[in-house]
C-alpha cells in the first residue's frame, strides 16, 4: 500500500534516515568549507614564500649592478614560461619593464604586500584579445583611467597577490604570483566535495528506499501478526525470515513467549475443566451427607459422625486444591521453594523408612538399594513429596500381583543423569497410551477406580521433575510398572 510523504515521515526508519542525512550533509558542507579554506591558506602561504625568494634574488642582483642589472634580470625572468609577475615602474607609476601590461588602480601606491588579490593583464594579452575578436586593425589606446581598469578587470583579467617595493631611486618594483592555480585547485576541491556530498546523499536515499522499506515491510508484517494474536488467535506466530538479524531474534523470543502463554492457557483450561468435572462428585457427596443428616431426627452421635465425615472430605478437598496449585506453580516455572544441594540417597532412605510400616501392613516387601551419595541441585521437600506419591502408588497397585508383592527403589548414574527408579511387580499399565495419560491431572485408569486417590500423584511428580529440569518416565516392568525420575547430574568442581 502506497504511503504519502507525511505518513512516511511518521515512521521511525524515515525519521532516522532523514536525521542521518541532515547530519551527514551538515558535516559534508563544513568539510567543504574547511578543506577549501585550508587549501587556499596553504597555497597562499606557499605563494608568498615563493615571492619572498624571488625578491631576495632580485635584491642581490640590484646590489651587484644597480638598476641596469636589475632591469636585465627582470626582463629575462619575465620571458620564461610560467614566470611570476615582474614590474618596474617610475615614481609616477609609469610601467618601464616587466611582463605586466596593466594593473588595477592603486595596486602600486602602497608599499608592502597587497591586502587583497588584484586584477591584472599580462603583457601582450590585450593584442591577443583583439586578434581573437577581429579588432586588430584598430589603434591601441593607452591603458589609462577607466580603460585601464576595464582591461584589468575584463574577461581575460587575472587575479594575483604581490609584494611592492620602492627602490632607493624612488622607482617601484612589483613581484607577484598569479592566483589561477590556487583558485583552480580550490575549485577542484569544491567540485569534488560537492560531488561526493551529492553521491552520498543519493546513496542515503537509495539505502533508505531499499533497506528502510524492507524494514518497514517486516514491521508491518509483525504488526499484522500481532493484531491477529490480540484478536484471540494464540496459535499465530510472528514471521521469521531466517536472516538472523534483530527482527528475527525479537520474533523468535516473542514466539517462544506466545508458545509459553498458549501452554499456560491450555493448562489453565484443563485445570478448570478438571476441577469442574472431578471435584463435583465430592462436593455433591458433602451436600448429600449434610442434607441426609438434617432430614429427620438423629442421635448426637450421628451428628458428630456426619460432621467428622464432612471434615475429612473437606480436608481431602483442601489437599486436592493445594496439589493443583502446586502443580500449576511448578509447571509455570515459579515456586517459592528454594533449591540447593540434595542427596537423593538420603531422600530415598527417608521415604523408605516412612513407608516401611505401610508396606508391611499391606503385605508388600519394600526394598531400597542405595550405595554412595547422589547429589543434585533441587528442593528436598518437593523431591520427597514426589517420591512419596510414587512409592505410595507402587505399594497400592502391587497388591494385585500374582506372586509376592515387591516394591524396589534403586539409584544409578548413567550418561550424565541420575536415575531414581521405583518398580513394582503388580499388573502395571500395559498400554502405551494409558501410560502417557497416567501423568495428566485427575486421570485415573479404569482398574484404579477402586483405590482411594485424586489422580494428582503422578501429575505432581511430573511437575516436580519439570521444575528440576528432569523428566518422569513410565516404563513397563514385565511384570509391573517402573516409574523413573531422571535428574541432571550435579557437577562438583
Question: Explain this structure to me?
Answer:
The structure is a single chain. With 493 residues, the chain is an alpha+beta fold. It is built from 12 helices and 14 strands. The protein has helices at residues 5-9, 12-78, 125-133, 145-152, 180-230, 246-278, 280-294, 300-331, 344-362, 380-397, 432-437, 457-467, and strands spanning 85-89, 95-98, 100-103, 112-113, 118-122, 158-166, 172-178, 340-343, 365-369, 375-378, 406-414, 417-424, 471-476, 481-488. Strands 1, 2, 3, 4, 5, 6 and 7 form a 7-stranded antiparallel β-sheet that branches. A hairpin with a 5-residue loop joins strand 6 (158-166) and strand 7 (172-178). Helix 7 runs antiparallel to helix 8 (300-331) and helix 10 (380-397) packs antiparallel against helix 12 (457-467). The radius of gyration is 52 Å and the shape is rod-shaped.
Backbone structural class: alpha+beta
Unreliable segments of 5+ consecutive residues:
135-156
Structural shape: rod-shaped
Work out the helicity level: 55-70%
What distance separates the N and C termini? 61 Å
Question: What is the mean predicted local confidence, pLDDT?
Answer: 77
Compact summary:
The chain has helices at 5-9, 12-78, 125-133, 145-152, 180-230, 246-278, 280-294, 300-331, 344-362, 380-397, 432-437, 457-467; strands at residues 85-89, 95-98, 100-103, 112-113, 118-122, 158-166, 172-178, 340-343, 365-369, 375-378, 406-414, 417-424, 471-476, 481-488.
